Each structure stands twice: as C-alpha cells, then as structure tokens.
Amino acid sequence: MTLGAAADDMEAAGGERISGRRARFTEDWCCCACAGLFLGPNPMMARYMYALIFLVTNLLAWTLRDYGDSALAELQRLKVCQGARYCLGAEGVLRVSLGCFLFFFVMFLSTVNTRKVHECRNSWHSEWWPVKLVLWLGLTVVTFLAPSPLVQLYGKVAHFGAGAFLVIQLISVTRFIMWLNDWCRSEISQKRCHLQIQVVSIVTYVGSLLGIVLMYVWYAPSLSCKLNILFITVTLVLVQLMTFVSMSSKVKAGYLAPGLMGIYVVFLCWSAIRSEPHTEVCNKKAEVATSADWVNIASFVIAVIVIVAATFSTGIDSKCLQFKQAEGESEEDDIPYGFGFFHLVFAMGAMYFAMIFVGWNASHTMERWTIDVGWASTWVRIGNEWLAALVYIWMMIAPVIWKTRQVGSSAETET
Questions:
Q1: SS3 label, residue 329
Q2: Does the pTM exceed 0.85?
Q3: Is the pLDDT of residue 365 over 80?
C-alpha cells in the first residue's frame, strides 16, 4: 500500500467518524427536543399556546364586527340570529367573547390550586391540546345558539370583569416598576451601573414632562378644550405628586420609579384623549389618523398585540396580588406560575377585549379598524390612570405607615 493510499484511507475513516458523530448528535438532539415537546408537560410552552388561542379569538371578534356581513353570511340561517342581526356587529363580538370567557373559566375551575408539577392538573393544563381546541371551538359555536337576552346580560357583566382586569393589570405594572426600582437601588446594581441608572431616571422623568407638553400642544390648542386641559393638568399634578412622595425623606425611592410611573400615566392620559370621538374639534390628531387608512390599520394591529401581550404578562404574574412575602422557599417541583390565576386573567381579558371592541357600549357603532373609541372608553382610561397613580402612592407610603404603627404598638406594650 502506498503512502498516498494510506493517507486517503485515514482521511476517509476520519470523515466517517465525524459524520457518525454528527449523526449521533443530531439524533440525540432531535430525541431530546421531541421528548421535551411531546413526552412531558411543559407549562412554560403551554402559556404561549393559550396566548395564541386568545389572539385568534380577538381576530375572530374583529372579523365579525367589521366584515361579518360579507364573510359570514351563513349566520343568517340561524333562527336565533334573526337575519344575522344578533350574531354580527357588537353582539357578534359579545358572543365570541362569551365563548372565550367560558373556555378559560372552565380551565380556571379545573386548574385552580394546582401546586406541584406531578399533579394530573399540570398535565391537563400543559397537554391535551386536541381536546382543548375542540372545547374552545365548541363553546364558541354554542354561544351563537344562545338567546340574545343572555348575550346582552353577559355584555353588562363584562363591564365589571373588564374593570377588574384593568385593576389587576395596573397593580401588576406598578409592582413591577417598584421591583425594578428596588433592584436598581441595591448595592450590587449601584456599584455596577450607577451612572446608567441615573441617566435612565432623568430621561424617564423628563420624558413624562415632555409628553405632557406635547399633549397640551396637540390636544389643547385653545382654551375651549376644557376637558382635555383638565385631563392633562391632572396628569401633570399626579406626576409631580408621585415624584414628591418618592423623594420624601421617609420614602427615599429615587427618581426612577416616579419617572417610569410618570411615563405610564402619561400614556394612559394620551390613550384616553385618543379614545375621544373623532368628531371632537380638540382631537386633531384623531382626524389625521382617520384620513390615512394605513395609520388606522397599524394602530389597530398594535392595539390587538398590546391586548394579548398585556393579558399574557399579567396572567403569569400570579404574585402581583400578594402584598406580603410568602414564607419559605419555593421547591423544585412547584409549578412555575399559578395556573388558576393565569386562566382567570385570560377569562377577564376576554371580557376586556369585548368592551374595547364595542367602545364599552354594545349599542355603540364602531367604525372599521377602530378600537376603544367613544366617551365611555375615554372615561374608563382616565379612571384607570387616576387609580394607577393612587395605587402607586399607596404602595409607597403603606410601608411607612405600617412601620410607624408597629413602633407605636411596641412602645405601648413596653409601657
């Protein structure tokens, strides 16, 4: 055998070994991936599936509202629809919302108080997707057989469910901002990125003030816009009040938390003014939006994505309503998030998207590609803004009050 032939044989053998290793690696990786996806419950992946179902339901409700007359003419054959009168438009949105609510409420009842990953309810939450898809579709179809008075009653109840959803959402956002502020003020964070934190704090605070100035320019061009001036001025007062409380000697929370909350309440005020009817003289920006279809479409798509994202982020934050630290450390076999709370938030989210699709008024006619427009929507968002500021202020001063009471009670006990 020549040296060249030997070298060729060695090269071929090496290539076979490399190919074999690659094949074994690919096979092992595929097996692990398949095992992770199909052989065991995966609650972290399941939450995205539920979010996808929620998104599809939103799109179905929008289709019934804006394009139901042409796309779903078959509904006219149902007696309960009375020529599609009670199955399209605003009531069609309520029917789809009712089906979504029933689905997630059933999931809530069947998964509430689940504690460990080895429980059967974890498997039900994370697997059995064909069964759950049939359940979701079945409940959605059944709602179109329900009588109109029952659907209208659900529409009235949905006002309260949507309001509860907004309250839980703002509490979740506020607690996240406070957690982020505490983390940034910790010794480790101060040593690593003190300058960056200071810059972000100043930018957020100045940004909230800049947003208020822009709202004065855009939505209060004259003194006749008294309501908009009131909304914006109250927002300015709330931003300053939150900053004053955070910087007080007893709280000492810094500028980051009030800056982030300032951005949040300014956004809520802006969205409230944007929800005013487009016929308002003071809402010039809304008139521009209606004149350009692509602006309306983009705003609608972003709004739907925000609804799903807000419901998702609130649903996995099952500890947002726990105002006391839980005793003991979490164990390895604990579920990663509260399944019952997750489904309950999505059930209330179904009520919420119904309300913003009909402008919080089932008898209100919505234009195509619009969402959450009307005076009812405006006042709901303004109330949400004011409540968010009050919740933040209370979360800031509550520890000081409790500490003062504890000191006073201990002093009385000693005497």
A1: coil
A2: no
A3: no
